[in-house]
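--- STAGE predict ---
source: upstream dedup step, 1 unique chain passed
mode: sequence only
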Amino acid sequence: MPGSGGPVATFSVWDYVVFAGLILFAAGIGLFQAIRGRKETNSDEFLLGGRQMTAVPVALSLTASFMSGITVIGTPAEAYMYGTAFWLFVFSYAIMSIISAEIFVPLFYRLRITSTYEYLEMRFNKLLRVIGTSMYIAQTALYTGMVIYAPALALNQITGLDLWGVLVATGAVCIIYCTLGGLKAVIWTDVFQMIIMLSGFVAIIARGAVLQGGLGKIWNDSYHGGRLETFSFDPDPLRRHSFWTIVVGGSLMWASMYSINQSQVQRYISCKTITHAKLSLYLNMVGLWVTVSLAMLSGLTMYSIYKDCDPFTNKDVGASDQLLPYLVMDILAEFPGLPGLFVAAAYSGTLSTVSSSINALVAVTVEDFMKPAWPWLTERQLSWINMGMSVFYGAVCIGMAGVASLMGNILQAALSIFGMISGPLFGLYMLGIFFRCVNSTGGLVGLISGLTITLWVGIGAQVYPPLPEKTLRLPLSVEGCVAPYMNETTTITPFSTVLQTTTPQPRPALADSWYSLSYLYFCPVGIIVTMVTGLIVSAISGGCKQEKARPELFIGKSDLICFGCRRSDSEVSDLIEKDPKNIQGLESPVFGDNEIALKEKDYKEKITKF
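--- STAGE serialize ---
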């Protein structure tokens, strides 16, 4: 009987068929894009889809790339164990979308960059570009390892398949369609995988509602179990989740992910116009709302079923990230194929994120390291390098999955990594685009200072996890369990769980203050330290007296809330081809004075043809 504890069924033949079929279909999309675009082998086509993508597929890809297997598995477990405070991220997603669309899209679109970190060299110097790229590579490789590990852990739980065999197979599929299909393959595969992810959540909620007697019963159980206390206005910065930590800290953290993270920027600058680029971010916001809401409802469904017999306390699972897979086999096993659909959903999120990461890692490596070092490389050589680097980074990410197995709560660990590394980088970009007097010395010292502080608090929090009174894990019961059960096949115990369950170790003075800071504040701390230090050092080193920087590197009034005020380069080129006299109108607000400054050489070359 569902919810009574003990062993659950394993995969049936039909589950394997559904799971394998969906994953092979996803890989097939990559192969199709490779065959379809085999004549378009230049680097721009591989990395940016020829800059001809439209808003809707890019929006779905943006959503899917961070709605990974971590989200599919970790977010419902979050609602089950801590309640629905995580739902407040809908506010964070809205703020993040506005910041990204109205500040960073105009900047990156105007500069027509391939690597986000090209901007750092334009605004500061080569050294900061190299440091920024290196930070991104380290962050993304570790995060992607966690993304691969999460669904592999789930599949190991409900099928008994070898964990490392599953890890390698995951990376191999991603490598295939990243290597052969480039960004177009990644985006169109993401669209399909997003549909599969949402279908998995709907299947869980629908079956749970039938078992429990309707959504009203699930909601009522969640209310009496304290799971619906969403709004907490406690200003304590040590509180894990509150309105302030999520709306303030969470907004800045997600803004750092979508505004300067290569995986995301690479998508929206692949759009054919700036209007499509901005629209893709706002549609992505809606997609994030839908996804996190379905994940929360799945977690509440899980609580309603297991309110009297918690599988984690009853030792039916060895980690909180195995709770949802356990639920799936408990309530869906009698419907052959549905457990396969769920695992495909978790895997789809993983494949989407891993493929995005591999493609972005290749882009920054080629643009920031290889092209400057070997400018004589031909397009054909670059295409082969792109494919070779895809294989290399796929292997690196598989290796990093081993590190991920030591990180504990995988959802929190993933967001902590972004806060620790993206926070200082985001602060550097804010200095660059808003403060003309900040120089490269100030930017460098600010970045190093911010990174030092966030790594200090982040690593400290991992070694000395906050005490239960700050994490506020809600009570769970095992009174309704038929019999205690230890799943002997479950041997994976998170590192943080080991720390909390072994003999208490002496805690340093900072453990219950600085190291207990909410993980969502890692990013704001990094931003503030970077910006304040950068401004002070720039003032001391004479930054405000430096030579005037290029105006297109800063955000101006025309960039803000200007949904369609700039033409794409392709539109500009078409107008010039039709009538060369149109060149005289390019300085109007319709086109933007910065575009004419950046593309003046190209325009002059076109005029000479007439």
